[in-house]
Amino acid sequence: MRHRSSAFLAFLVIGLGALFLVPNVRAATIVFDASGSPNPQSCVGCSSISWTHTVGSGSSGILLVGVSYDDSRVPTVQFGGTTMTALGDHKGAGGQSAGLWSLAVSSGASGTVTVTFTGGPTTQIIGGSVSYFNVASTGIVASNDGVETSAASVSVSTVAGDVVVDTLSVFNGGGTVGSGQTQRWNSGLLAGVAAGGGSDEAASGSSVTMSWTLTSIAPGNVWSLVAVPLIPPATSPIPEYPLGLPLLAILTIISYGVIRRKTKNPKK
Question: Whole-model pTM?
Fold first, then answer.
Protein backbone atom coordinates (compact mmCIF):
# COMPACT_ATOMS: atom_id res chain seq x y z
CA MET A 1 0.00 0.00 0.00
CA ARG A 2 2.86 2.35 0.84
CA HIS A 3 4.47 1.57 -2.52
CA ARG A 4 1.27 2.43 -4.41
CA SER A 5 0.81 5.65 -2.48
CA SER A 6 4.40 6.70 -3.14
CA ALA A 7 4.10 5.95 -6.84
CA PHE A 8 0.87 7.87 -7.16
CA LEU A 9 2.31 10.82 -5.21
CA ALA A 10 5.39 10.91 -7.43
CA PHE A 11 3.35 10.98 -10.63
CA LEU A 12 1.01 13.58 -9.17
CA VAL A 13 3.94 15.86 -8.34
CA ILE A 14 5.39 15.43 -11.84
CA GLY A 15 1.99 16.12 -13.38
CA LEU A 16 1.43 19.25 -11.35
CA GLY A 17 4.90 20.43 -12.28
CA ALA A 18 3.98 19.98 -15.93
CA LEU A 19 1.26 22.58 -15.46
CA PHE A 20 3.95 25.24 -15.49
CA LEU A 21 5.62 24.16 -18.71
CA VAL A 22 5.64 26.79 -21.47
CA PRO A 23 4.06 29.58 -19.39
CA ASN A 24 2.81 32.67 -21.17
CA VAL A 25 2.87 36.13 -19.60
CA ARG A 26 -0.02 38.50 -20.02
CA ALA A 27 1.05 42.15 -19.70
CA ALA A 28 -1.11 45.27 -19.71
CA THR A 29 -0.97 47.05 -23.07
CA ILE A 30 -1.04 50.84 -23.35
CA VAL A 31 -4.17 51.88 -25.24
CA PHE A 32 -4.56 55.11 -27.21
CA ASP A 33 -7.78 56.87 -26.22
CA ALA A 34 -8.31 60.23 -27.92
CA SER A 35 -6.60 63.29 -29.36
CA GLY A 36 -7.60 66.94 -29.47
CA SER A 37 -6.37 70.29 -30.76
CA PRO A 38 -7.65 73.84 -31.17
CA ASN A 39 -9.39 74.94 -34.34
CA PRO A 40 -7.51 76.60 -35.93
CA GLN A 41 -4.53 74.68 -34.58
CA SER A 42 -2.31 77.76 -34.24
CA CYS A 43 -2.76 81.24 -32.82
CA VAL A 44 -0.56 84.17 -33.90
CA GLY A 45 0.18 86.95 -31.40
CA CYS A 46 -1.80 85.30 -28.59
CA SER A 47 -1.09 84.99 -24.88
CA SER A 48 -3.20 81.82 -24.57
CA ILE A 49 -4.84 79.07 -26.58
CA SER A 50 -7.45 76.52 -25.52
CA TRP A 51 -9.50 73.53 -26.69
CA THR A 52 -11.66 70.75 -25.24
CA HIS A 53 -10.43 67.22 -24.57
CA THR A 54 -12.74 64.36 -23.58
CA VAL A 55 -11.36 61.14 -22.06
CA GLY A 56 -13.05 57.84 -22.85
CA SER A 57 -13.50 54.75 -20.68
CA GLY A 58 -10.55 52.90 -19.15
CA SER A 59 -8.20 52.69 -16.19
CA SER A 60 -4.80 54.21 -15.34
CA GLY A 61 -5.39 57.12 -17.70
CA ILE A 62 -2.96 59.88 -18.61
CA LEU A 63 -3.35 63.07 -20.61
CA LEU A 64 -0.38 64.57 -22.47
CA VAL A 65 -0.34 68.05 -23.98
CA GLY A 66 2.28 69.11 -26.50
CA VAL A 67 3.00 72.79 -27.17
CA SER A 68 5.06 74.28 -30.01
CA TYR A 69 6.02 77.96 -29.77
CA ASP A 70 8.67 80.59 -30.43
CA ASP A 71 9.42 82.27 -27.11
CA SER A 72 11.95 82.24 -24.27
CA ARG A 73 9.16 81.88 -21.69
CA VAL A 74 7.60 78.62 -20.55
CA PRO A 75 3.78 78.49 -20.57
CA THR A 76 1.45 77.20 -17.88
CA VAL A 77 -0.72 74.31 -19.09
CA GLN A 78 -3.98 73.34 -17.38
CA PHE A 79 -6.74 70.79 -17.90
CA GLY A 80 -10.12 71.63 -16.39
CA GLY A 81 -8.42 74.20 -14.15
CA THR A 82 -5.80 71.74 -12.84
CA THR A 83 -2.19 72.63 -13.58
CA MET A 84 -0.39 69.90 -15.51
CA THR A 85 3.15 68.66 -14.80
CA ALA A 86 5.89 69.80 -17.16
CA LEU A 87 7.76 66.75 -18.45
CA GLY A 88 10.20 68.59 -20.66
CA ASP A 89 10.49 71.91 -22.47
CA HIS A 90 13.33 72.13 -24.98
CA LYS A 91 14.52 75.39 -26.50
CA GLY A 92 16.57 75.31 -29.67
CA ALA A 93 18.15 78.09 -31.70
CA GLY A 94 16.30 81.40 -31.53
CA GLY A 95 14.08 80.20 -28.71
CA GLN A 96 12.22 77.69 -30.89
CA SER A 97 10.55 75.52 -28.23
CA ALA A 98 8.71 72.22 -27.91
CA GLY A 99 7.27 70.99 -24.62
CA LEU A 100 5.22 68.16 -23.13
CA TRP A 101 2.96 68.28 -20.05
CA SER A 102 1.13 65.42 -18.31
CA LEU A 103 -1.74 64.76 -15.91
CA ALA A 104 -3.29 61.56 -14.56
CA VAL A 105 -6.95 61.48 -15.62
CA SER A 106 -9.94 59.34 -14.72
CA SER A 107 -12.33 57.56 -17.04
CA GLY A 108 -14.84 59.94 -18.61
CA ALA A 109 -13.01 63.14 -17.65
CA SER A 110 -13.76 66.14 -19.86
CA GLY A 111 -12.43 69.67 -19.70
CA THR A 112 -10.69 72.56 -21.38
CA VAL A 113 -6.96 72.45 -22.09
CA THR A 114 -5.50 75.94 -21.66
CA VAL A 115 -1.97 77.05 -22.57
CA THR A 116 -1.13 80.45 -21.08
CA PHE A 117 1.89 82.76 -21.38
CA THR A 118 2.22 85.23 -18.52
CA GLY A 119 3.31 88.74 -19.46
CA GLY A 120 1.71 89.25 -22.83
CA PRO A 121 1.33 87.58 -26.23
CA THR A 122 3.89 85.38 -27.92
CA THR A 123 4.66 84.98 -31.63
CA GLN A 124 2.80 81.72 -32.19
CA ILE A 125 1.23 78.90 -30.17
CA ILE A 126 0.39 75.43 -31.52
CA GLY A 127 -1.01 72.76 -29.24
CA GLY A 128 -2.40 69.26 -29.18
CA SER A 129 -3.51 66.70 -26.61
CA VAL A 130 -3.57 62.91 -26.40
CA SER A 131 -4.91 60.54 -23.76
CA TYR A 132 -4.05 56.90 -23.08
CA PHE A 133 -5.05 54.11 -20.71
CA ASN A 134 -2.96 51.46 -18.91
CA VAL A 135 -0.13 53.90 -18.18
CA ALA A 136 1.80 53.61 -14.91
CA SER A 137 4.33 56.39 -15.41
CA THR A 138 6.45 58.34 -17.88
CA GLY A 139 10.10 57.63 -18.64
CA ILE A 140 13.09 59.85 -19.36
CA VAL A 141 12.38 62.72 -21.74
CA ALA A 142 14.62 63.03 -24.81
CA SER A 143 15.10 66.18 -26.88
CA ASN A 144 16.99 67.51 -29.87
CA ASP A 145 17.16 70.61 -32.08
CA GLY A 146 18.67 71.78 -35.34
CA VAL A 147 18.99 74.53 -37.95
CA GLU A 148 18.29 74.27 -41.69
CA THR A 149 18.07 70.49 -41.91
CA SER A 150 15.76 68.30 -43.99
CA ALA A 151 14.66 66.20 -41.03
CA ALA A 152 14.20 66.39 -37.27
CA SER A 153 14.77 63.34 -35.07
CA VAL A 154 15.39 62.22 -31.50
CA SER A 155 16.24 58.80 -30.02
CA VAL A 156 14.32 57.65 -26.95
CA SER A 157 15.35 54.85 -24.57
CA THR A 158 12.48 52.37 -24.23
CA VAL A 159 11.40 48.88 -23.22
CA ALA A 160 9.13 46.76 -25.40
CA GLY A 161 5.55 47.72 -24.55
CA ASP A 162 6.26 51.42 -24.02
CA VAL A 163 4.58 54.03 -26.22
CA VAL A 164 6.60 57.11 -27.21
CA VAL A 165 4.85 60.48 -27.65
CA ASP A 166 6.56 63.46 -29.29
CA THR A 167 6.03 67.13 -30.07
CA LEU A 168 7.72 69.00 -32.92
CA SER A 169 8.22 72.75 -33.10
CA VAL A 170 9.59 74.26 -36.32
CA PHE A 171 10.00 77.89 -37.40
CA ASN A 172 9.42 78.89 -41.03
CA GLY A 173 8.32 75.48 -42.27
CA GLY A 174 6.38 72.37 -41.41
CA GLY A 175 6.78 68.68 -40.74
CA THR A 176 5.57 65.31 -42.05
CA VAL A 177 5.45 62.47 -39.55
CA GLY A 178 8.05 59.72 -39.86
CA SER A 179 7.50 56.08 -40.82
CA GLY A 180 6.01 53.93 -38.07
CA GLN A 181 4.58 56.92 -36.20
CA THR A 182 0.92 57.88 -35.96
CA GLN A 183 0.21 61.58 -36.36
CA ARG A 184 -2.08 62.99 -33.64
CA TRP A 185 -2.05 66.67 -34.63
CA ASN A 186 -0.25 68.89 -37.17
CA SER A 187 -0.58 72.59 -37.91
CA GLY A 188 0.88 72.15 -41.40
CA LEU A 189 3.28 74.39 -43.29
CA LEU A 190 3.48 77.92 -41.84
CA ALA A 191 5.66 80.77 -43.09
CA GLY A 192 7.42 83.19 -40.79
CA VAL A 193 6.04 81.72 -37.59
CA ALA A 194 6.21 78.51 -35.53
CA ALA A 195 4.51 75.34 -36.77
CA GLY A 196 4.18 72.06 -34.96
CA GLY A 197 2.70 68.62 -34.56
CA GLY A 198 2.61 65.52 -32.41
CA SER A 199 2.73 61.76 -32.94
CA ASP A 200 3.22 58.46 -31.14
CA GLU A 201 4.82 55.07 -31.76
CA ALA A 202 4.81 51.77 -29.87
CA ALA A 203 8.23 50.46 -28.79
CA SER A 204 9.36 46.93 -29.59
CA GLY A 205 12.91 47.17 -28.30
CA SER A 206 15.44 49.22 -26.37
CA SER A 207 15.00 52.45 -28.31
CA VAL A 208 12.69 54.33 -30.66
CA THR A 209 13.73 57.11 -33.03
CA MET A 210 11.01 59.71 -33.55
CA SER A 211 11.48 61.64 -36.80
CA TRP A 212 9.81 64.25 -38.98
CA THR A 213 10.59 65.20 -42.58
CA LEU A 214 10.80 68.99 -42.68
CA THR A 215 9.40 71.24 -45.39
CA SER A 216 11.33 74.50 -45.35
CA ILE A 217 10.45 77.96 -46.55
CA ALA A 218 13.56 79.92 -47.59
CA PRO A 219 15.88 80.86 -45.99
CA GLY A 220 15.49 77.72 -43.85
CA ASN A 221 14.08 76.23 -40.70
CA VAL A 222 14.84 76.11 -36.99
CA TRP A 223 13.38 73.20 -35.03
CA SER A 224 13.08 71.53 -31.62
CA LEU A 225 11.76 68.05 -30.89
CA VAL A 226 10.89 66.51 -27.52
CA ALA A 227 9.65 62.97 -26.80
CA VAL A 228 8.76 60.84 -23.77
CA PRO A 229 8.04 57.11 -23.30
CA LEU A 230 4.85 56.03 -21.55
CA ILE A 231 5.35 52.96 -19.35
CA PRO A 232 2.63 50.32 -18.78
CA PRO A 233 1.87 48.96 -15.28
CA ALA A 234 4.14 46.21 -13.99
CA THR A 235 2.22 42.93 -13.99
CA SER A 236 2.90 39.61 -12.31
CA PRO A 237 3.18 36.70 -14.73
CA ILE A 238 -0.12 34.87 -15.10
CA PRO A 239 0.81 31.38 -16.27
CA GLU A 240 -1.21 29.73 -18.97
CA TYR A 241 -0.92 26.03 -19.60
CA PRO A 242 -0.97 25.12 -23.30
CA LEU A 243 0.94 21.87 -22.62
CA GLY A 244 0.55 21.39 -18.88
CA LEU A 245 -3.02 20.10 -18.73
CA PRO A 246 -2.61 17.48 -21.48
CA LEU A 247 0.61 16.26 -19.82
CA LEU A 248 -1.12 16.08 -16.47
CA ALA A 249 -3.86 13.92 -17.99
CA ILE A 250 -1.34 11.61 -19.69
CA LEU A 251 0.76 11.19 -16.54
CA THR A 252 -2.35 10.52 -14.45
CA ILE A 253 -3.39 7.72 -16.85
CA ILE A 254 0.13 6.27 -16.77
CA SER A 255 0.26 6.37 -12.98
CA TYR A 256 -3.12 4.69 -12.77
CA GLY A 257 -1.92 1.92 -15.10
CA VAL A 258 1.27 1.39 -13.10
CA ILE A 259 -0.63 1.18 -9.81
CA ARG A 260 -3.12 -1.31 -11.32
CA ARG A 261 -0.28 -3.49 -12.56
CA LYS A 262 1.51 -3.40 -9.22
CA THR A 263 -1.72 -4.36 -7.52
CA LYS A 264 -2.22 -7.41 -9.77
CA ASN A 265 1.46 -8.38 -9.68
CA PRO A 266 2.78 -7.26 -6.27
CA LYS A 267 6.09 -9.14 -6.69
CA LYS A 268 6.89 -7.16 -9.82
Answer: 0.79
